[in-house]
Write a structure and sequence with these properties.
The chain has about 725 residues and is mostly helical. The longest helix is centred in the middle third of the chain and has 26 residues.
């Protein structure tokens, strides 16, 4: 099913079936001989959504800028909170201000929608600070699992960096505090609540009132972009009065008029008045003015666009791309999307993976859901939600196939209709990176779909989606989502009464627990899977768990017990028809021998594993076996053979971005050079290994410290004498 390396290694590369390797998977740092990453520095993030033209808010923007100037003079970070009714323009005002000060903040711009009004509830601040750390250049494996540690690292990284942070739609001050940067940074918060608690943190709170009449008329005029406002000034004033000065309502009403250039403003005033009368008794927090405008705009939509509007409201995530709309309609949705965007019913959320992204204002989403409840049958709503879910499953599966072609061994169900599937290229390294980037960008949506799978009556979608996300979890270490996805996937598999899926979730989830440093919990899960396989008479499945349990015992510091399980797996797996998994068990057995100094045994087992892995086409694990054999030959003093294995491993691992394993091979080659009296060659290998270890585990990791100590031990001089104890020469 899955793959892991030995206990000192980090997991990366292609895995599938019953492959077992212990350790962790790292990704994200790519070394191709250019300057060290820390010398170049990561590119500053520029995450702010596009700014839109605002009217009548010059005083508020000036107030925000005045607060920033004072904070800067006093040497404090800038914190400003903008509150107000839904649709009053909080986000637009904050963005207008932040975009104007961009030249003063070369450290970049971070953005997060905190989801106070989202269907899934407010976002966990730990998830957001994790995204911020990655955007600031922290390799995913170095993002701490605990919130307090993440916040500490975030504050350290921003202490000497000038950047802007926007936290949109905050629920509480407590949600915001962990996301406040240090140093001379600027943070803007928007919320329907006033959040007075942020004043304690030095925040300046401004509350937006609706636009004055003339400013609202100016906004209407800019939206129409014709002469109707100047020709019908009284009607224009009446219209913005009906919109209560809320920019969202004015824009929606204006967009409807703009699409009907022959209609006078009076027509809109009459229709909006009737809607107001209907909604007055239903007003909630003053949003009836927006809802009246929304109802009118909705009533004027073409049938196809109205249908798409209703169904997109069911999307469980915060934003979506055009292919999702295609999946919802079951056909090309580009024209309908354009209609919704032109009607100001969708907001531009930028681009990702070459496609336009959209989102709803929260009031618009609620309106769309209400229309779906009214105008779509329960069956139609359920079908749309299924199509959304199957779309994400199909695309996650395609990404999985590109990244780890051998991983998927269980069937996937995409429902009765065709699915819209993205292409990530021809399966090369670039395509794998693109597929991983797609999975990472869509992770909030994938998790949102997974969470609603069981309540929506499609539990199989839940565990299959968790399984498809495995390459992302393995390589980029989204630990919280890894754990949640497999716990929810396990519940879904149990609801399906699918024993094979239950075991899949137990072993996949157990490997996640192992990777998170919880071998006791991992062992419990592996043993439960083993018991299930025994009950169902699945000998192959049970043999696979032998390898998993060996990994857990190895992590628990019980090498004898680990070797016993690895030995049994190496014998039973080929007998059950899976030679590749048996070879990986033998690789793990060699790793235990190497850790004990049994170099002959390690070389023999690694060599035997390598041959089977090579025949199976498993390039990554073949390279790992080459490296392990090379280290064993180094222990035996056979430097030529050690170099041959280590260089073969290095040549294969470099293009895979398998940074930890690459660094280990470099460390082995450095030792070979040291033994031959070639300190400068050793120094070059150590320096490159140090860069890679620092990328995947941090400059303070045990591996990085060990390499740094070896460099120090070589001293400042670098002399070459070309000696070797077995006649070899470094190539």
């Amino acid at each position: 099913m899955l793959g892991h390396e030995h206990s000192d290694n980090d997991l990366s590369g292609t895995v599938h079936g019953p492959a077992i390797q212990s350790g962790k998977v790292y990704g994200g740092i790519h070394f191709h001989g250019e300057a060290a990453p820390e010398a170049r520095g990561p590119r500053p993030p520029w995450q702010l959504p596009p700014s839109i033209r605002i009217t009548g808010r010059a005083a508020e923007v000036s107030t925000l800028e005045g607060h920033r100037a004072r904070a800067t003079r006093e040497g404090h970070p800038t914190l400003a909170a903008v509150s107000g009714l839904g649709g009053v323009g909080k986000t637009a005002v904050a963005l207008a201000w932040l975009h104007t000060i961009r030249p003063h903040f070369p450290g970049g711009q971070l953005y997060a929608d905190l989801g106070a009004q989202s269907p899934g509830g407010p976002v966990d601040p730990g998830e957001v600070v994790g995204r911020f750390l990655r955007a600031l250049g922290v390799p995913t494996p170095q993002v701490p699992p605990a919130l307090a540690e993440r916040v500490a690292l975030y504050r350290s990284l921003t202490a000497d960096r000038r950047l802007v942070v926007m936290l949109d739609d905050a629920a509480t001050a407590a949600q915001v505090r962990p996301l406040l940067p240090a140093g001379q940074c600027v943070t803007a918060v928007t919320s329907r609540r006033r959040l007075p608690g942020l004043s304690v943190d030095g925040g300046h709170v401004i509350h937006l009132e609706p636009l004055g009449r003339e400013a609202a008329v100016e906004l209407l005029d800019s939206t129409l972009a014709d002469s109707r406002v100047s020709e019908q000034p009284e009607e224009a004033r009446a219209l913005v009065d009906l919109c209560a000065g809320l920019p969202l309502a004015v824009r929606i009403a204006g967009a409807r008029l703009a699409a009907r250039p022959r209609h006078g403003i009076t027509t809109m005033v009459r229709a909006l008045t009737e809607e107001h009368d209907r909604l007055e008794a239903l007003a909630i927090d003053g949003d009836h003015d927006v809802r009246a405008a929304l109802d009118l705009s909705y009533q004027g939509l073409p049938a196809g666009a109205a249908h798409l509007y209703r169904l997109l409201g069911l999307h469980p995530g915060r934003e979506f791309g055009g292919p999702v709309a295609d999946a919802v309609l079951g056909s090309d949705a580009a024209d309908a999307l354009d209609v919704l965007y032109d009607a100001s019913l969708l907001i531009d959320a930028g681009q990702a993976a070459g496609t336009e992204r959209y989102r709803f204002h929260d009031l618009v989403r609620l309106h769309a859901v209400a229309q779906a409840d009214r105008d779509e049958s329960p069956g139609a709503r359920a079908s749309a939600l299924r199509r959304i879910g199957y779309h994400y499953l199909a695309n996650a599966t395609r990404a999985e196939e590109v990244i780890d072609p051998q991983h998927r061994t269980m069937a996937r169900d995409y429902g009765p209709g065709p699915v819209v599937v993205a292409e990530f290229g021809d399966g090369g390294t670039g395509a794998a990176d693109a597929a991983l980037d797609w999975l990472e960008h869509e992770l909030p949506n994938l998790m949102a779909v997974l969470r609603i799978a069981r309540p929506a009556g499609i539990p199989a979608l839940g565990w299959q989606l968790a399984d498809a996300m495995w390459p992302l979890f393995l390589r980029r270490k989204f630990y919280a989502e890894w754990r949640e996805a497999h716990r929810e996937g396990l519940l879904a598999a149990e609801e399906c009464d699918d024993a094979a899926a239950v075991c899949r979730m137990l072993t996949s989830g157990g490997l996640g627990e192992l990777d998170m440093g919880c071998p006791e919990q991992a062992l419990v899960m592996f043993e439960r899977a083993a018991d299930s396989f025994l009950r169902t008479g699945d000998a192959l499945g049970h043999a696979r768990t032998l390898n998993y349990r060996g990994l857990a015992h190895q992590r628990l510091g019980k090498p004898d017990r680990a070797a016993e399980f690895f030995g049994r797996a190496a014998a039973e797996l080929p007998a059950c028809g899976d030679r590749r998994a048996g070879a990986l068990a033998r690789f793990n057995l060699a790793d235990v021998a190497l850790s004990r100094g049994l170099y002959d045994d390690a070389a023999r087992d690694a060599g035997a594993a390598r041959e089977v892995l090579r025949e199976a086409g498993d390039t990554y694990n073949t390279a790992r076996a080459d490296a392990l054999a090379g280290r064993a030959y180094l222990g035996l003093g056979l430097l030529d053979r050690a170099e041959t294995g280590l260089r073969a491993a290095l040549d294969a691992l470099r293009p895979m971005s398998a940074d930890h394993e690459t660094a280990r091979a470099l460390g082995g080659l450095a030792l070979v050079s040291e033994r031959r009296g070639q300190p400068e060659l050793a120094r070059q290998c150590y320096r490159e290994a140090l860069i890679l270890y620092s990328g995947v585990g941090g400059p303070g990791s045990a591996d990085a410290r060990e390499v740094r100590d070896r460099l120090d031990a070589l001293g400042p001089e670098a002399r070459e004498n070309g000696t070797a104890d077995d006649g070899g020469a470094a190539g």
